[in-house]
Amino acid sequence: MINITNLRVRYGETVAVDLREAIRIERGERIGIIGSNGAGKTSLVNALLGLIPAEGRFQINVPRSEIGVHMQNNAYAETMPVRAIIETVLGASLRRLPLVQELIHFFNFEESLGKTYRRLSGGQKQRLTLIMVLAMEQPLVFFDEVTSGLDYETRQRLIDKLISWYDERETTLVMISHYYEELENLVDRILYLEQGQLVAFGEKRELFQRYCGQTIITLANDPEYLPLITGFDRLVSPEHLLAVSCGNSEAEARLTERLREHNIDYRRSSSDIEIMSINALATWRRQNGKESA
Amino acid sequence: MNTIAAKATTTPRNGRFRWLVRYELFNLFGVIYVPFFGLVFPLLMSFLLANTALLEVPAAFRQEAVSRLVLSMLQMVPLAAIFLGHGALYSQEQEKQVPLRLELFGLTPTLQMLAKMTSQIIFMTFALAVNLGILIPSLNVLRPTPAGFSIVLLSMYLMAVILFMLAHGIANWIRKFGPTYAIVMLLYFAFMILGGMMGMSSSKLPGPVRFVAELLPYHYITEDFLDVWQGKSYNFAPFIQAMLLLTAVSALVMVSSFIYRRHRSL
Predict the structure, then answer these.
(1) Is pTM beyond 0.90 here?
(2) Does A64 touch chain B if contact means CB atoms closer than 8 Å?
(3) A-B contacts at Cβ under 8 angstroms
């Protein structure tokens, strides 16, 4: 559905995206694009959509009219009644759009219909665009930071809704997010960018195993705990955590037993995108001779 | 090869054009300056000038002077509603990337532009009807011949399309509300002064300024169109030349903005 042989985006002298590896996204796949601020995530999507000039060989094999896009910022005329926005985008009266009515109910959006766009809260604005994007039921949908600017609870509720909506559908999703937990249950492949270059691309599980092993155990970063994890493979982790790779079940059992003996809380994971991404980045930096940030 | 396989059609799809026109009408009435400057302001100015400046005109010539004034004020409708209104609204939308958002929903720029123009024309028709409906009987304006009335109306609609192109081009070049509003406001008042709509006849302007005024169609509508209105013979050549010049400039501004923006996406 999306083929990239190579792709380059430049803003003046700055190269925002420089992909030299072939990337292929098949119909029905769900891709999470991750990376730090300025990594080139939005530029990559904008280039694919033809919204910014880009060089290279890349193609989306779907007519433009069958691509849904939820951008970071989605604005409409401030004084416009919300109902008029929906009816304009979908080209029919709400009464004749049962799917939209279902979505409005699904997103608890009924009371927002009578307002003008400027009277909506941040979360309601996000839901408005989401309702319209979902209602168009296009086979390929891009989401760029769909929950940006929302509080934790609203973010969780929105993502839960998205998960349940797409659970029953074959839609191809490309989702940019800073929040790894949002991607955990929604995507099956990760495309990781840094400084416009590809750090990693593949199945979530496969990438986890490549960079973290079979499972990981994370615990609070307390110097007193360090002797307990000696002899295990320590992974790069956020400052507040210690992360240990367990290559097999025996190693995991030995470590967890030791932690339990000392009454230390820990968390086990076989899919933690955050720890995977930190270690993928560390490997990429080593291999490419880049300094650590 | 860096393309999306096919572009969305610009043909109205599933009746979306009709809804888009309705959206644009909501948009127009949602901001106070379009109804005010396009509907109320010409009425106010006509009544104000008819009851102040024109009071000194001898009674025998008063009806003719008032009629000339009303025809002159009618030009404010396309100028305010379309030129000022569309320029300000569209630049505001561009600044917030509203047209891009709609384009991503499959509403192409061409479709959006046509819907905007259609809604502006609908609004202008309403504003002209209200203005003529109130001004002709209440200020005792000379009655037009059918041909004269049609030509005046046709001129207003042609002017509307030309001014739409100019405003669209300026807003699309700049894509910022502040500077666009300043430029269209400046041009709006310049057109009104040069076109004799501010109470001073453009034929009384100093030489070089009068030369510029005569390059614009407003001068001819204010000065001469009472003859056209009444079905008298009139040499349209200078007026048509002025219209062609304004059309050429407006088309140049609009087309160049499209070319400029094509190379500077987003």
Answers:
(1) no
(2) yes
(3) 111
